[in-house]
Structure formats: structure tokens, C-alpha cells
Design goal:
The chain is mainly α and 261 residues long. The protein has three domains: 72 residues; 60 residues, no CATH class; 86 residues, no CATH class. It is elongated and about 115 Å long. It has a two-stranded antiparallel ribbon with strand order 1-2. It contains 13 helices and two strands, in the order ααααββααααααααα. The protein is 64% helix and 2% strand.
């Protein structure tokens, strides 16, 4: 830690503090203990403190609550406060330095951070990615930043499209949902493609309504539709049950469906 080579010492706190409860020799040993504690940046074990000022003086300081010992570690509160202040100042300087580097070397990332579009952590990560790419990619840094931003936008577009695809209407799945066998559905869709019929949700609903009007088994009905190459069906055609037990449809039925064939 880059810290001051000295620590703050208040005469008033000394004269009015708990240290005055201790013998003068212990007070002198306490100064030595503070210097060691500061030099070790607050990381001082009970054993090391005992070696420095002797056990009797150390235990006196602890009993008078001038210092404390928790789990074998010494704590001197007024020095801990100063060490914390130094660390906070160091962190602020480090943060300022990072932001300054972003502004200088990655202005586009800095602008997004300044506009609160991304956090400082994200900005640092993105700038580091660009730094890594610069070792293997001849693309200018500014262009690399733009490329990463474009890749992120493309990724968001792909995610949006995937969500849309999940919720999109499926003519095939809707037909299968009526209980029609998949092979019949595939053949029926081929018929519609040859006739250039759109597989829209509106077209499905119309077909579904006509299919449900029939009292015939839906797969039998779809078999005859597919066998005759039809792209749709109307219940008004009045197909007979025995028609589905024949390889071909009656001539009269075929005549009625010319518009769909």
C-alpha cells in the first residue's frame, strides 16, 4: 500500500485517552507497538506484538482496552481508521485513473459510461477485450470498439428474433395439434406449396373450422385430401363415408373441388 511514512498522533487524545491508565513504561512500549503496527499495515499477530513489547505490557494494554486482540490478531482502532482513509484515497485515485484512460484511449466506451449506458466494470471489461484484440488484430482501436458494439447489437437482434420465432405461428404444428399425423401434414403442405397457397394463421383457422364440421375421422379425411392433391377442404362438398375407403375420389367430388385443385 502506498501510505504516508508517518501516522497522525493527537496530543489531546493521548492525554485524555485510555493509555493514561497504563504505567509509563507500558505507554512507551505502546508507541513502539504503534510503529510496528503501522509498518505492517495493520497486519500484526499477538505473537509478533508480544515479542516486540513483552507479554506483560501487551496484556496490560489489552486489559485497559487500549488495543484489542481478536482471534490472535492485534487491532489498534485509531491507526485502523487512518489506514482505511489511505485505502479509500488510493481507490479513488485508481478509479480516476481508469476513467481517465477510458476517456483518452477509448472515447466511445467512455461516452457510454458517462451516459450511464454501461457500468464502470463493463467499460473496463470491454476496454480490456479491445486491448487483447489489439495484439492479434490489425484493426484500429476505435474500429475495434465499434466492432464490439456492433457484435453486441447483432447478438441482441438474434435473441429478439429467437424469441419471435418461439412465439411465431406454425401452420404445421397447428395441424398436428388437431391430431393429424405428421406425414399427412407434410404432404398436405407440399400440396399447398405447389398451388402457391399461403400457410397463414387465417388460412389454418378457416381449414380447422371446415374439418371440424365433418363427422369423419380427421386422418381419413386428410388422407383423401392429400391423395387428390388438394390444398384445402370445404365441408359443403358433402363427401360420403365410403369415399374414404376407395383409392380415388368419385368424379362428382373432384368436380366440386376444381377451384382448390
Amino acid at each position: 500500500m502506498d501510505k504516508l511514512q508517518w501516522f497522525k498522533f493527537s496530543y489531546a487524545d493521548w492525554r485524555l485517552g485510555k493509555i493514561q491508565r497504563c504505567p509509563e513504561i507500558t505507554q512507551a512500549r505502546f508507541i513502539n507497538l504503534c510503529c510496528l503496527y503501522w509498518n505492517k499495515e495493520g497486519n500484526l499477530s499477538y505473537e509478533d506484538a508480544e515479542i516486540e513489547i513483552d507479554k506483560s505490557h501487551l496484556d496490560t494494554l489489552i486489559s485497559k482496552k487500549v488495543v484489542s486482540s481478536i482471534d490472535g490478531v492485534i487491532n489498534i482502532s485509531f491507526l485502523d481508521e487512518q489506514l482505511l482513509e489511505i485505502q479509500e484515497v488510493k481507490n479513488d485515485k485508481s478509479k480516476s485513473g481508469v476513467i481517465g484512460n477510458l476517456k483518452r484511449w477509448h472515447p466511445s466506451i467512455f461516452k457510454r459510461f458517462k451516459d450511464k449506458e454501461i457500468s464502470l466494470e463493463d467499460a473496463i471489461e470491454e476496454s480490456q477485450t479491445i486491448a487483447d484484440l489489439s495484439h492479434t488484430d490489425s484493426t484500429p482501436i476505435a474500429d475495434q470498439s465499434q466492432t464490439i458494439a456492433e457484435k453486441r447489437r447483432e447478438e441482441e437482434k438474434r435473441k429478439d428474433k429467437k424469441r419471435e420465432d418461439v412465439n411465431a405461428f406454425s401452420f404445421s404444428k397447428s395441424l398436428q395439434g388437431l391430431g393429424i399425423e405428421k406425414s399427412l401434414v407434410n404432404d398436405f403442405i407440399k400440396n399447398r406449396k405447389l398451388k402457391k397457397l399461403a400457410n397463414t394463421e387465417t388460412a389454418f383457422k378457416s381449414l380447422e373450422e371446415e374439418l371440424k364440421k365433418s363427422n369423419l375421422p380427421i386422418n381419413n379425411l386428410m388422407t383423401i385430401i392429400v391423395s387428390n392433391g388438394w390444398g384445402g377442404y370445404k365441408n359443403s362438398w358433402n363427401l360420403k363415408q365410403d369415399s374414404f375407403n376407395k383409392t380415388q375420389q368419385p368424379t362428382s367430388v373432384l368436380t366440386q373441388t376444381e377451384i382448390i385443385r
